[in-house]
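<purpose> Linking amino acid order to shape
<body> The protein record starts here
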Amino acid sequence: MFLGTYLVSVTSGKRISIPSVFRENLGKELILSQWYEECLVLVGKSSLNTLLGRVTGDQRTIIEPIRKTEHFIFASSYEVVPDDQGRIVVPDRLVAYANLKDQVYFLGVGDRVEIWNKEIWEEREKEVAKDAASYIEDLAKRNEK
């Protein structure tokens, strides 16, 4: 399980150092992809299909929303290999998509690691904190049905 929030610098070569607390659970073969809300997702290679299955509901019928989701995720996925210091190079396309600058946040989000532009995450974190109680209540009501 991935937990916590870590601020990391981006080098001029678009390299970022994966926080050590995440490295062992991620493994050596990693997939970096665009994700929702203009962030990136980093998972172990063996975990990508499981994660996509959670998003699409493990449906085997290829319907348009599933195809679009697969295109969104798989077509923007890159295999990345950390160097000896745990750094990965972020492809230009993903740097542009997530608007990565000098610093990024790594977020442990249960079964995945998300990478966010510093300013975007700080704004989102305030928004989420402000509305957290209503989100929890809405989810609880859905689960009661």
User: Anything to note?
Assistant: The chain has one domain: 2-118.
